[in-house]
Amino acid sequence: MICEGTILTRHAETMPTGQAVVLWLNTASGPSKLVIEGEPSVCFLAQQDVAAAQKCLMGNGVNWWIKPLQLRNFQHKPMAGLYCDQQAGLYVCIKILKRFGITLWEDDVVVTERYLMERSIRAGLQWRQQGQKTIVRPFQVTPHFKVAAIAVSAMGWRTSSQPQLRGIALACGDQHWNGVVASHHSEQPDDQVFDTPTALLSAFLQTIAQWDPDILIGWRLVQDDLRLLQTCCDGAGIAFTLGREASPVRWYQPDPARDFWRAGIEGRVLLDGPDTLKTAYYFYADDSLEGVIQALADKGMPSVAVISDGGAAQLLARASAMLSVFEQLELLAFLTARSYLTGLPLDRTGGSAAAFNNRYLPRLHRAGYVAPSVGTQTLHFHSPGGYVFDSIPGIYHQVLVLDFKSLYPSIIRTFKIDPLGMIVGLSGQTDHPLAGFDGAVFDRERSLLPALIAELWQQRDEAKAQQDAALSQAIKILMNSFYGVLGSNICRFYDPRLASSITKRGHEILIATKDWIEQQGYQVIYGDTDSVFVHIGHNRQGASPDSIGKTLASGLNQWWQQKLSASYEVDSCLEIEFETRYDLFFMPKLRTHDKGSKKRYAGLKIDRLGVEQWVFKGLEAVRTDWSPLAQTFQKQLYALVLKDAPYQAWIRDFVADLRAGRMAPLLVFDRPVKRQIADYAAGLPPAAQALQQLQRAHPGAVFRRVQYVMTVNGVEAQTLTQSSIDYDFYVTRQLQPIADAVLAFKNDSFDAIVTAQMGLL
Fold it and tell me: Are 156 and 700 contacting, i.e. CB atoms less than 8 angstroms apart?
C-alpha cells in the first residue's frame, strides 16, 4: 500500500536492529508513525587521514566503519565516509578524532536531517513497504492539520517554586474545553470545576489525548505555559505526557547561563504566537496577544482581557482568539509552504542557515564535494551592510521611490556568487573567471546558487500568478536570506568574501543608479540598500509623476543590461521598479545635528480618486514608546505644515486643550509586559515602575499590559493615579521635539509659538 503525508515531527531512535529515523506525519486518514530502520550516521574525513583515524578509533566500543568515496573537499582532496550505527556513537568518534587533530567535514549534520535532504524530501513524502525495506520519495501533499490552542493561568508563576494552578482552556475548531480549580472558581455555568490542581492537570492531559491535535499553539507557549504545566506536574507527581503515544515533553536548554528553554513532543508541533509572527515576517510594535488583536481590529478580531484572573471564560476567550489570529494571518499556510520549500520543521524559528543547508548540500554532493563543518572557517573580516545615502532633509513636492526587486538575489544570479563557484575560481581551474570583491573569484559555469535562485524566482512568479500569497512570501524570505547566511559564522559556507561580493556590488549599483538619475535632471534625496528616493518637483516637462517613474525604471533597466554586458560579459538580472509616489514628503534632520536622518520620514500619497494616505516611517507616530498624544499631534501637525496650511493657532489651541485636561485619554502610555521586575538589574523604566505598582495593588494577578501616566510625582499606573498630571512633561518631552523637527524648515519653533500664547494671557 502507498501512503503519503506531511511531516509533523522527526527524531532518531535506537532499535534492536540499529538506528531508526522516526517520522510522525499528517495523512488524510489521520496521524501516522513511520519508522525507517537501519540508518547510519555519517561524517567525512580526508582519505589521507584514514589510516590515522582507524588507529585512533580502535577499541573505543563503538560500531564504526570507514569507506572511500567519490567526493572531494573544498581543497580538492579525496574524501572518505566515517559511519556509525548510532548517532551517539558517531559523537564519540568525532570527539576522539578531534582530540588527535584529525579534521572532519559535515560532522554536525544529524541523521534525520541527512536522511531527508539527501532524498530531496523537505516536508511531504510518499512511502511503501517493499519486503523489509521502506521506499520513500518526495511528494506534495495538502495537509489538514488539527490545531488546538492553550491558555493557562496560575498564581506565583516565576515568583514561587510552587505556583498555584488556577485554570486551563483549550480551543480546537468547534471543540472547547475549560477547567478551573475550585478555590478560584468564578461560578460560571459552563466551567468544569476540579477540587485540586492535580485533577485539573489529569483532565487536561486526558482531553489532549482524546482530541489528538497535530499542532498546539499558544502565546509564550513554551517559556510560560508548558514550563508552568511541567512544574505543576512535577509538583503533583504526574508525568507530563503531552505527546502522542503518551510520550513526555523533552526539554532543551541551549545556554545554561540563560533561563531559556526549548521543548519538543513526539507527534505534535508546538507553535508560539510571537515567534510564528516573526517567522512569517509579521512585525508588530506590540506582539502580545492583545496588541496583535488590536492591530487586527479592523479585520473583526475579538477583544480579550488584559488581566488574567484565572476565570475559565476569559481563558477560553484567549485560546479562541489565538486560533482567530492564526487563521486571519494564514500563519499555518505560510509555515506549511516554508516547510515544503526549505525542509525546516513547522515549528522551527529562524533557521536560515538550516534552510540553506537543506537546499544547497544535496546539490553540492551531487557536484562531487562535501562541505566544511560549522565554525571551521578561518578567514574573518568585516563585510559591510547595505549602502545608505545621507539624506537631504527638507519638505518636498513629488518624490518617487524606485526599488530594486530582490537586489541581493539578483546580484548573486548576475555575478555568479556561489561557495563552490568561488572554490573553483580561486583554484585557477576556470577559463572564464568573474572577479568579486576582497580577493573573490567565481567560475561562471560551475556554480550552484545562481541556478537555485533562478529556480526559486520562477516558482515565486508562478505562486504570484496563482495568488498563493503564503508560498510567494516564503520564497521571498528564503531568497533574501541567502546573503545573510553567507555572511554569518553560524553557516558552514560562511566566507566574508562571499558576503562582500554581494554588498559591495550593491554599493556600486546604488551609487551608479543615483548618478544616472541625476544625469537625467532629477535629485536623489535619499537611498537605502535597494531603493532610491527621487525628487522631481516641477521638473516634469508636462509629464505626470507616474509616467516619469515608469520611464526612469525602464531606462535604468536598459542601461544596466547594456553596462553589465559590456563591462562583465554577463546578463543583468537586476530589475528596478517604480514602487510609489509621494505627493508631499518630509525628511527630518538629526535632532542634535544638521545632518539628515536615516530610515525616518513622512509622506503623503494621493490616489487618482483623491484619497489621502499618510506614511510615517521610524517617526514618533508609529513608535509605541510615545504617547497617543504625541502620535496624534505629529500626524495632525505634519499634515498642516506639509500642506502649507495655518498651524500656529492650531498648536496653541492643542496645548491649551492639553493643559485644560481635555486630552486625558491621549496621555496614557500603553505598553506590553515582556519582562518581569526581577529581570531588571538596575533602574526600572516607566512601564516596569507601573507594573510594580499594579503587582503590589493586585497580588497574584497576571498583567500582560500596563497603562500609566506621567504625574508631578513621576510614573503612576493609570488605575492607581492619585497625583496631578505633569502637563509640562507632555508639552516639553512629547510635543516640542516633534514640532521643532518640522517647524525648523518654516523658520519657526514650538517655543516661540507657545511663548507668544503665554504673552497674550
Answer: yes
> Is residue 741 helix, strand or coil?
helix
d(CA 657, CA 636): 15
Going by C-alpha positions, the residue among 22, 61, 67, 59 that lies closest to residue 43 is: 67
160 and 308: one domain? Answer: yes
Q: Which residue spans within 213-283 are E strands per DSSP? A: 215-218, 250-252, 262-264, 269-272
pLDDT of residue 761: 47
Which portions of the chain are predicted below pLDDT 70? 156-161, 184-190, 299-312, 539-540, 756-761
The pTM assigned to this predicted structure is 0.89
Of 461, 488, 454, which Cα lies nearest the Cα of 359?
454
Domain range for 392 is 377-587
Mark whether 176 and 306 lie in a shared domain: yes
Q: Residue 720's domain is classified under what CATH number?
A: 1.10.132.60
Q: Is residue 227 part of a domain?
A: yes
Residue 131 is predicted with a pLDDT of: 82
End-to-end Cα spacing for the chain: 90
* Cα atoms in the 13 Å half-sphere on the side-chain side of 694: 23
Tell me which residue has cell 566574508: 496
**pLDDT for the residue numbered 4:** 96
Instruction: Provide CB contacts within 8 A for 119, sequence distance 6+.
Output: 136, 137, 138
The residue among 111, 138, 165 that closes a domain is 138
CA–CA distance, 486 with 438 (Å, rounded to integer): 15
Both 583 and 442 in a single domain?
yes
401 with 315, same domain: the answer is no
Model pLDDT for residues 693-744, shown as the tens digit of each residue = 998 998 877 787 899 999 999 999 999 999 999 999 999 999 999 999 999 9
Concatenating the DSSP letter of every residue in 432-468 gives SEEE-STT-EEESSS-SHHHHHHHHHHHHHHHHHTT-
